[in-house]
Amino acid sequence: MGALSHIRVLDLTRVLAGPWCAQTLADLGADVIKIERPGAGDDTRHWGPPYLKTPDGADTREAAYYLCANRNKRSVTVDIGTPEGQSIVRELARVSDVVLENYKVGQLRKYGLDYASLAAIKSDLVYCSVTGFGQTGPLAERAGYDFIVQGMGGFMSITGERDGQPGGGPQKAGVAIADLMTGMYATVAVLAALAHRDRTSVGQYIDMALLDVQVAMLANMGSNYLASGKPPVRWGNAHPNIVPYQAFQTSDGWIIVAVGNDAQFRKFVEAGGRAELADDARFATNPERVRHRDTLVPIIAEMVRSRGKHDWIATLEAVGVPCGPINDLGEVFENEQVEARGLRVEVPHPSGGTAALVRSPIRMSATPPEVRSAPPMLGEHTDAVLRELLGYDDAKIAELRARGVV
Predict the structure, then answer these.
(1) Active-site residue (options: 11, 42, 97, 179)
(2) Rounded Cα–Cα distance for residues 169 and 369 (Å)
(3) pLDDT tens-digit series, residues 198-237
(4) Where does the record place a coiled coil (predicted)?
């Protein structure tokens, strides 16, 4: 039994931030009921290619993007634009512990599905809203997108190659980092609210904003600015205070070399056949290497390009110089540590035969997360949930389906 197997979550979210929170709760055992639009569903169902393949190699209708954030959930299709659909969602909220939603500010109020309306029928409800800019402030009404928030929230000002260098300029992260981190912060907030509810029988409202999260996750960079008043700049794959501490291209790929002290620098250049660099006054100590970065780094780059990445990794690991490869995703999932940790899992899927997913990284000794089911087909569990939780009979479900309510 999962740690949250006693918790039911009504998930009104779509795309990534909200579904990521809901999936994390589902991995931990919660019964997550995903409400989707009849005939269309979560927007990400259509964000392909690539799509999940059938056993004979044909595309299914399940986009890989959708698969990443929706395992362990039950899909129920409901048209919340209809009075009957709104009633169904209210009934499901009455038998749930948590409601997640990521509609525009105030949009659910007209349907009677906002926090005030649902808390009136279930006072201990934990209700979490995820938006781009939060429920208050001059930008609250604006739609929020991860890419825009990465720019507005300062992340792109410290990410990317240095200005003046080839390829220099702001760069977004390779994944929707503001969405994903908002999903994780939302998970923490929901768990904290549930702990409070269990002590007091009182629910509460959670206001999660992508911009708030993006600013918060600047971490030491944000603190550096607040302490100094000086905005930090982009350093690409280099480090502002340590040299060499960056990525280098080998003859057949890229590696990271993270020299943390002068002894490691000597070992590094000795391993590369350039021991004289450690005795050069310009490079003998880290402060001097930082001052002469523009002279030293091209020399090291030429040295590293003379050999392959696996040769370098083996050599540097043998002499105790911190290093690692920059892997593409094929290499990631073939990595012996990734395989040993079981990060790739295969689960049965109705149309794909099986679906390959990435397991939760959370490891717990008594209640470990598990992949119980593949991301659901659109409306796969509508009938079962309406029967099980609301007591609807076949005739009522058929009548609702005929009118397009479910």
Answers:
(1) 179
(2) 40
(3) 999 999 999 999 999 999 999 999 999 999 999 999 999 9
(4) none
pTM confidence score: 0.94
179 is a catalytic site residue: yes
Domain with CATH 3.40.50.10540 in the chain: 8-217+339-402
User: Which tokens sit at 385?
Assistant: 């949930």
260 touches 322 (CB < 8 A): yes
Residue 244 token pair: 């060499």
Q: Which CATH number fits domain 245-249+254-325: 3.30.70.1280, 3.10.20.10, 3.30.1540.10, 3.30.559.10?
A: 3.30.1540.10
Spatial separation of the C-alpha atoms in residues 190 and 41, rounded to whole Å: 24
Q: What are phi and psi of 130, to 5 degrees?
A: -115, 120
How far from 65 is each of 62, 328, 387, CA to CA, in Å? 8, 18, 30
Instruction: DSSP letter for 249, please.
Output: E
Q: Which residues contact 68 (CB under 8 A, 6 or more apart)?
A: 357, 358
- The letter for the amino acid at 188 is V
Torsion angles phi and psi, residue 319, rounded to 5: -105, 5
Q: Tell how strand 59-63 and strand 245-249 pair up.
A: unpaired
Residue 188 gets which letter from DSSP?
H
